[in-house]
Amino acid sequence: MPVVREFTLPDLGEGLTEAEVVRWLVEVGEVIAIDQPVVEVETAKAVVEVPCPYGGVVTALFGAVGEEVLVGAPLVTVAVSPGEGERPLAAVPVVERTVERAAEVERPLVGYGVAEPDRGGRRRRVGGGGAAAVARASAPVAVAVPVAAPVPVPVAAAVPVVAGGVPAVISPLVRRLAREQGVELAAVAGSGPDGLIMRADVERAVAARIAVAPAAPAVVPVGAVPSGAGSVVPLRGLRKAVAEKLGRSHREIPAATCWVDADATELMALRRQLNAVPGPKVSVLALLARICAVGLERFPDLNSSVTADGSGILRHSAVHLGFAAQGERGLVVPVVRDAQRLTTEQLGEELGRLTEAARTGAIAPAELTGGTFTLNNYGVFGVDGSTPILNHPEAAMLGVGRIVAKPWVHQGELAVREVTQLSFTFDHRVCDGGTAGGFLRFVADCVEQPGVLLRRL
Known about the structure:
By secondary structure, the protein is α+β, with helices and mostly antiparallel strands. It folds into 3 domains: 156 residues, CATH 2.40.50.100; 41 residues, Irregular (Dihydrolipoamide Transferase); 220 residues, Chloramphenicol acetyltransferase-like domain (Chloramphenicol Acetyltransferase, 2-Layer Sandwich), CATH 3.30.559. The protein is elongated and about 80 Å long.
C-alpha cells in the first residue's frame, strides 16, 4: 500500500537557517522521479534547486512563492510505493546544488489530509480520521490511489485553520514581520487561498500606512520641492545577507586604505603574448589573482583574520581567493580554493567557471564561503578607485580600477601608457601600514614589470 513521505527543507550548509521559495518546479498530482528537483529557493548565499529523495505522486506543496521556509520545515509530501520510490538511506549522493538530504517521515497513506498549524507555527500533516477529520478541514480529503496514477490533491499550504476570529497566518516569519513593522494582523486581508495572510500582504499594509501617514513639518529651502512619500523595500535573501555582513564588518573592523597608480602596459602586453598561442585564454583577472597569491606568500599576515573573540590572529595556510562577480540577484563573491597551488591558466579556468555559475544563478552555496582574501575588480564598472568594506572576517582586499590610456612619464619621457589605480584595504589590527604598503608595492611592481613574478614561480 502506498505511503506518504514528507520531505523537509534540507540543511543547505554554512549555517543557513531559512530559504525563500522562488519557483515551484512540480505540481500537486505530478509523478516525480527520485532526486528530481522540486523547488527553486533563494538562500542568503545563492539560488539553488532542491531535489527530492522520493519518487511517486506529489500530494502537497508547502510554501507560496515569496514565502520563507525554515530548515527542517516541510517542503513536499510524496505518495510512494514501499521500497520503490525512495533513495536507500545508505546511498546518499552528493548533489552539487544542495549539501545534504533531508530527514524522512514515513506515514501510512490513509488519506492525503490537510495541513494544520502546530504549536510552533509550522504546518503538520493530518491524515485520515473519518468524518471528524473532514469536518476540521476547509477542503475535501482525497482518497488513497496507486502511486502511478496522479490525481488532483489539495495543496496543503492553502488550507489555513481559522477559528474564533484568529487571523489566518501559518508562517512564523509573516508573524515576525508584522510584529516588527507594527502591523495588526486582524486588520490585514489575506490574498492567499481561503484568506491566508502572506508576507506580501503585510508588506502592502506597511506601504499603505506610509503612503497615508501625514508628513512631518520640515524646513524647506525657498524654491525647493519636498519629495513625496517613498516605499519600503524589505531586505530579503541575498541582499539581506550582504547588508548584515557589511554592517558587521563596518562595526567591527578598523579598516584603512592605501592606493597607488601603476603602469599596466607591460602586463597587458604579456596577456596578449599568452593569448597568441593555442590554449585557454588568460584574463587580466587571472594574472592579478596569480600576483596576489605570490604576494600573500611574502606577506602572510594579510592572509589572516582576527578570531571571533578578538584575542588572536588566525593565519591561514591556504589562499582561498574570493572575487566579486555580478549574479542574477546581485553581487556575490565566489571563492577559488587553494589559489596558491594553481597556475595562471588554471586560475583563469576556475575564475571563468565560477563567474558563469554566478551569472546564471547555478553557483553552489559552498562556493561562496570560506574566502581568506578578496580581489575586487571594480574597473569593470568603469571606475578608477574605491575604498571598499572588507569581506568579514577577512583582513584584506585588493581593488583594481579600470585600465585606461593616460599620459605617463616613462623612462624620463612623456608617453601614453595603460594605467590603473590599485587600492588596498586592510584590517589595521593584523598589520601596520608598512606591511600593507609593502604588499601593495609588490603588486604594483608585478603589474609594471611582470617578469618580477618569475623570481617567485
